[in-house]
Design brief:
The protein is built from 11 helices and 10 strands. It has one domain: NAD(P)-binding Rossmann-like Domain (Rossmann fold, 3-Layer(aba) Sandwich). Helix content is 41%, strand content 15%. By secondary structure, the protein is of the alpha/beta class. Helix 5 packs parallel to helix 6, helix 6 runs parallel beside helix 7 and helix 7 packs across helix 11. Strands 3-2-1-4-7-8-9-10 form an 8-stranded mixed sheet, sandwiched between helices. The structure holds NADP nicotinamide-adenine-dinucleotide phosphate. NADP nicotinamide-adenine-dinucleotide phosphate (NAP) binds next to helix 3.
Amino acid sequence: MSIFTLLSKKGPTGFSGADTAESVTKGLDLTGKTILLTGCNSGLGREALRVLTSRGARVIGLARTLEKAAEACRSAGNLAIPIACELSDPQGVRSAVAAVKALKVPLDAIMANAGIMALPKLKQAHGYELQFFTNHIGHFALIHGLLGLLTEKGRVVVMSSSAHRMAPKTGIEFGNLSGERGYGAWKHYGQSKLANLLFAKELNRRFAGSSKTAYAVHPGVIATNLGRNMNPAANLLFGLVGPVFLKTIPQGASTEVFAAVHPEAPHFAGRYLADNNPSTNSDLGDDAALAKRLWEASEEIVRKTGG
Ligand SMILES: NC(=O)c1ccc[n+]([C@@H]2O[C@H](COP(=O)([O-])OP(=O)(O)OC[C@H]3O[C@@H](n4cnc5c(N)ncnc54)[C@H](OP(=O)(O)O)[C@@H]3O)[C@@H](O)[C@H]2O)c1
């Protein structure tokens, strides 16, 4: 048992950070529900896929390639449907939206789980810094394309991170979305995760008057493939200390699964959730004017890049 697990305390939902995706869904029958999940082939997404299908949900599993999505979906039994979606490719996102629409099934939840972290050197797609473009713009375009499929009480769960606090002081550097005016691996990961958080909150505001809800999630700190871009020594250390100090993958997958399917989650709509409970985000994360500006800038980027 990790030190994290030993120190975990229950919050208002009755769960703690030590709960797993299995324990937060214990007793839930998700038969008849359909949930779309990005990044279904690895880490937290793969565990969410496994647990959601084990509870009877149909999961539309998205991964960079059809092969990766199909392999993961096969491992989860016959309730999962694989679709390719390379989030940094606007055409790929458009094709994924079309493929999901062709299934003609309403979506009870969309889980924007996929992500990349801390690329050591500046990388770009369509002239935009790659973490911002993948983690935020890819999901923004995908979710926009699918909003019409959401059920009346549909939920959108956007994976953020406590690393949203590493974003630049101004929050989103609208004048440097290319990264060319100064790049930092963690600063730009932080910016992308702040964008995820602002997007979830703004989406929830725009859902006002309906029963649809949106949530931002910090999953905890978990040794997964996400660390692949960190320097090898840091990654090795992370892997070694993980079992002692960090969350396990089943624990890390719990909060996004809680937000997507637990009957109590809508009480916390529009919130930043961590450890299966409402948590506190940075002040920038609550800046509604910044969120609105990001929304408008994102629409423009999607339009310009053909998404
Ligand atoms: N692990 C943590 O400690 C931690 C902490 C805070 C937040 N998070 C967030 O949790 C989420 C899941 O991360 P994880 O820890 O499970 O990492 P992971 O094992 O690396 O999984 C990330 C998933 O995202 C997919 N992905 C990456 N780039 C993509 C792209 N361009 N298009 C489509 N899919 C793409 C990956 O596909 P490939 O396998 O093909 O690369 C993989 O399926 C991420 O959003 C991450 O930022 C994780």
